[in-house]
From TrEMBL:
Catalyses which reaction(s): L-arginyl-[protein] + 2 S-adenosyl-L-methionine = N(omega),N(omega)'-dimethyl-L-arginyl-[protein] + 2 S-adenosyl-L-homocysteine + 2 H(+)
Entry GO MF terms: protein-arginine omega-N symmetric methyltransferase activity
Pfam families: Methyltransf_28
Designated name of the protein: Protein arginine methyltransferase NDUFAF7
GO terms for cellular component: mitochondrion
Organism: Parasitella parasitica
TM annotation in the entry: none
Length: 497
């Protein structure tokens, strides 16, 4: 009982919730898998197709054949190409990461361009006065209900509500991060260098305020040398972050803060200084690509989402090779200890092939291409950074596949989970778990140029381990001794470097 409650909490803890306008209807989603051989470049419109996954026994209808013919001439678009579209375009093909990026981040209809609310209790919880973690859950449940009520009133807006450890355990979670930063800074840089912090995706600005408050109150000498920079994709949230300072009396404002309203993927400034780079609950929405392997040859194929004139989606496949980012990712991953679970069971794959109605490709594997791009950005533009990233290491109710995302929306108070990421752009949250152990190995190769295992300064900790080490476990304990900051978010991990 306790366990299932907790799991439900974890599940609810990071779900973006949204409400569809009353009069719009869900668009049916058609998903088929096609194993496509593209002969030359990625833009080639003459693709030589193999039978679809289950097609040897079902010949395509005339309509499907016509659709198939039309699809070959669809232009191939990226999320940059669609950024100016006012509504999701049809008759095109996109790599899966571009399709997901467009669904989430398109400035006009993307999920994030709708009003985002990051759940933030007005007053901090007084854990010491609570009976136990169930009381905390009940208080939280009530507050959350109130927010949902408010959201329901804003019926025409697909409103999103995030819960994050930063907000639920404020100021203690921020203080824990601050304690870690200050101890590392004092060990290595103080008093010769400034404490320079970059925070990617700062939400309401709560972590920034809590970190700076902690340093100001506990480490005045360090505070004098602190610079805090926020890199925030959302214009609305960047404004909110600035307002956090404005509502304070002038003497309590942190004047060392600079807010830069842009995506980390558009970052082009060289930062040669030694600095800390933070990102709490940002990477789970970084788009992934999808690959499958040919069952016979085990060669990887990359998926594209083809959208037809009716706005229906079909997954089509082409051999890996035409996309530079996927190529770089797979080449780098080959240098790690990681072996894809979808190809590691050779015997099983052989058996599978001999079955009637056998598929011609393995099951799906989602690969974190945009996260890999973040590592490249860190290497190029922040060569002397130290990283603090936290996010989900696993997620319940994901769609099928390795490292597959959770795809969901909320409709009139009810969660609507989906079994595919190919859903109408803008109405669904799509978020991924992170394989932190693989991330660590990739980080070492990209940012440190060293092989996995050689550098003990790059660590993966669970949320609990980090909070036990740096958090104030007394102030976050309830009267029964239970500590919600340690108990919840057990599916979160952190990489610190
Ligand atoms: C789930 S919220 C987390 C907010 C905050 N870090 C916290 O833990 O409460 C994700 C934040 O990342 C921002 N974000 C998402 N993608 C981004 C990107 N590519 N570049 C910069 N910020 C991004 C969002 O606008 C939002 O502020």
């Amino acid at each position: 009982m306790l366990k299932s409650n907790r799991n439900r909490f974890i599940q609810a803890s990071r779900q973006l919730l949204s409400i569809r306008p009353k009069h719009s209807s869900f668009r049916p989603v058609i998903t088929r898998l096609q194993h496509t051989k593209v002969s030359s470049s990625s833009n080639s419109s003459s693709s030589e197709e193999r039978p679809g996954l289950f097609s040897p026994f079902f010949s395509p209808t005339a309509e499907e054949q016509a659709e198939e013919k039309a699809r070959r001439h669809y232009p191939r678009l990226t999320a940059y190409d669609t950024a100016n579209c006012k509504s999701p375009p049809t008759c095109n093909k996109m790599l899966v990461r571009d399709f997901i990026d467009d669904s989430l981040y398109n400035p006009n209809y993307g999920y994030f361009s709708k009003q985002a609310v990051i759940f933030s209790p007005e007053t901090d919880f007084d854990f010491n006065r609570m009976r136990d973690h169930l009381e905390f859950m009940n208080v939280l449940g009530q507050l959350y209900k109130d927010i949902e009520g408010e959201a329901d009133e804003v019926d025409e807006v697909a409103r999103q509500v995030w819960h994050t450890p930063t907000e639920l355990f404020k100021p203690w979670y921020g203080y824990a991060i601050a304690k870690y930063l200050v101890s590392e800074y004092k060990l290595n840089l103080f008093p010769h260098k400034d404490l320079i912090i970059y925070e990617m995706g700062a939400g309401n600005g709560t972590l920034m305020m809590n970190i700076l408050d902690y340093i100001q109150q506990n480490e005045p000498a360090v505070y004098k040398r602190t610079q805090y920079n926020i890199i925030e994709i959302s214009g609305k949230l960047a404004e909110r972050q600035a307002e956090r300072q404005d509502v304070r009396e002038a003497k309590d404002q942190h004047t060392c803060v600079k807010i830069i309203n842009k995506s980390i993927f558009d970052w082009d400034i060289h930062v040669p200084d030694q600095c800390f780079f933070l990102g709490m609950e940002v990477i789970d929405n970084f788009a992934h690509d999808l690959i499958r392997y040919d069952l016979e040859t085990l060669k990887p194929y990359q998926a594209l989402v083809s959208t037809d004139a009716k706005g229906e989606y079909t997954e089509v496949y082409e051999p890996v090779g035409s996309d530079a980012l996927i190529n770089r990712y797979l080449a780098m991953r080959d240098q790690t200890r990681y072996r894809s679970p979808v190809v590691s069971k050779h015997l099983w794959l052989k058996c599978l092939q001999s079955l009637p109605l056998a598929p011609n490709m393995t099951s799906a594997e989602f690969i974190p291409t945009k996260l890999f791009m973040l590592l490249e950005t860190l290497k190029t533009h922040f060569p002397q950074h130290r990283l603090v990233l936290s996010d989900f290491s696993s997620l319940p109710d994901s769609v099928d596949g390795v490292d597959a995302p959770v795809v969901q929306t909320r409709y009139r108070g009810t969660m609507v989970p989906c079994s595919t990421y190919m859903v109408q752009p803008g109405w669904f949250d799509i978020f991924f778990p992170t394989n932190f152990e693989l991330l660590r190995d990739l980080y070492l190769l990209v940012c440190r140029g060293s092989r996995a295992g050689n550098d003990k300064t790059v660590k993966v900790l669970t949320h609990r381990e980090f909070c036990e080490r740096y958090g104030d476990v007394e102030r976050t304990a309830t009267r029964s001794g239970e500590n919600p900051m340690l108990m919840y978010y057990e599916n979160m991990k952190m990489i610190i470097t």
